[in-house]
Amino acid sequence: MTLRNHVLIWIGISIVFLGLLWLFRGILLPFVVGAALAYLLNPVVNFVQRAHIGRGWATAVVLLIVVTILGGLLLMLVPLAAQQAGGLVQRLPGYASNLQELARELAPQLTDWLGEDRAAQLETTIADLLGDLVGMLGSLTADILASGMTLISVFSFIVFTPVVAFYMLLDWQKMMHGAQSLMPRQNRDEIQRIMSDIDKSMAGVIRGQGSVIMILAAFYATSLTLTGLNFGLAIGLIAGLFSFVPFVGFAIGLVLSMAVAIVQFGENWVMIAVVFGIYMVGQFLEGNVLYPKLVGSSININPVWLMFALLASGLVFGFIGVLLAVPLAAIVGVLVRYAIAKYRASSLYLGTSDETGDDASIS
After folding, report:
1. What's the average model confidence in pLDDT over 245-255?
2. How does this protein lie in the membrane (predicted)?
């Protein structure tokens, strides 16, 4: 099979995959989360199996422990976080008005410091930013409520996700052996190297970045709550959960926290500085400790492309697209790097006259 036909086949497969993803996007959430949970827990199940425990019992025990822990955390945190998030959205217009009033009170000092024109321009800019932030969060909340899961879909998610994870974990080794048996024998070693790189990248996404998100969410939520910041739990969870988008979680959390802190603490600049310091510590930990240790260079995707993948997939496929954006971007990144390496080794790049070599066709 020529290289051209090989590429066309894979392009066709990709188009069919994206079409099916778009067609069934409304029911894929429990399957995607279940598959991610199975991928995350497979090493743990393998470890338990080494104690001479059958695959079925090892899967059941590990999954039962994890589901119990997650269920307990959700029952404790979700009602309180949802209540705080709703209160925050309702109070945002008031916070915006208070900040504008504070800016007007400081206007004479700003005028003396910056000059009349620059002070007026700064006040207008701040007002516009606050209005845009309130409008964006209000629109986002309305979209979430409009597209939120119904009682039936919530029940389906709670029931089907553990079931999907259980059966995928139970048959994980069979699925891997089946996939390997279908690989073309002539290129099996090369395909396995690519799959190994994809597995490393996926581990960075699901295991590494997932751990970073949970640690940051716990850090921000706990720290802001201990400072006594209003809606600290909700803001901290938002900052942590959105940290899978580079700098977005940090920026949203910092803006919301500082806005609430300035209104709540008034002239107590020590507490405002403490809230600001929490985000500086969190950003330092994320960039210098958590991300290098847990994720490293396994994803190796430019943040600009990552943000584009998130926005584009979210626009086309909705919430399920946001969940799949980073793993798919990691897979595409591995394939693109492989294609570039093959191109640089080809006669087309090297300018040699040998056009019948190994790069002319791939069986």
Report:
1. 81
2. Multi-pass membrane protein
Q: Give the angle 8-19-27 at the CA atoms, nearest 5°.
A: 145
In the block, tokens 């490393």 appear at 200
CA-based nearest residue to 261, from 246, 249, 247, 277: 277
Q: Which residues contact 17 (CB under 8 A, 6 or more apart)?
A: none
pLDDT value at position 179?
A: 80
78: number of Cβ within 10 Å: 11
DSSP state of 2: B
Distance separating alpha carbons of residues 59 and 15, to the nearest angstrom: 34
DSSP per residue over 56-101, as a string? HHHHHHHHHHHHHHHHHHHHHHHHHHHHHHHHHHHHHHHHHHHHHH
What residue segments make up the domains of the chain, in order of their start?
28-182, 191-347
Q: How many angstroms separate the Cα of 210 from the Cα of each of 22, 180, 215, 294, 295?
A: 25, 28, 9, 9, 9
Are the beta carbons of 237 and 219 closer than 8 angstroms? no
Band of the pLDDT at 356, cuts 50, 70, 90? very low
- Condensed to tens digits (0 to 9), the pLDDT of residues 132-154 reads 665 555 555 555 544 444 555 66
